[in-house]
Amino acid sequence: MTFEAALRELEQVVEQLEVGGPGLEEALHLYERGSQLVADCQRILDQAELRVVRLAAETAGSLGAAPAAPLGDAPAPPLADAPAPRLGDAPAAAADPQ
User: Fold this and answer.
1) Cα dist. 30→1, 5, 18, 60, 85 in Å?
2) What fold characterizes domain 3-63?
């Protein structure tokens, strides 16, 4: 099943559950199907992310750059020469261009 097909079916399941028409047994069946569709969509997205990371690493390697970190796993780069904020520090106010 493709991601798009699973997502379409999941949207239909959610719509049926939101309307509240099915009885308890049908609602449980729909909920189980929706849970499976969510897992399928997540698996497909995880596989796609892995492919993108691998392609980026291959491309970066061929260009002599460092490979990209997996999405969501890389820490944010530190700001150049900026001190780390301390607990209780107020955020810097933006300059008013008036």
Assistant:
1) 18, 16, 11, 44, 48
2) Helix Hairpins (1.10.287)
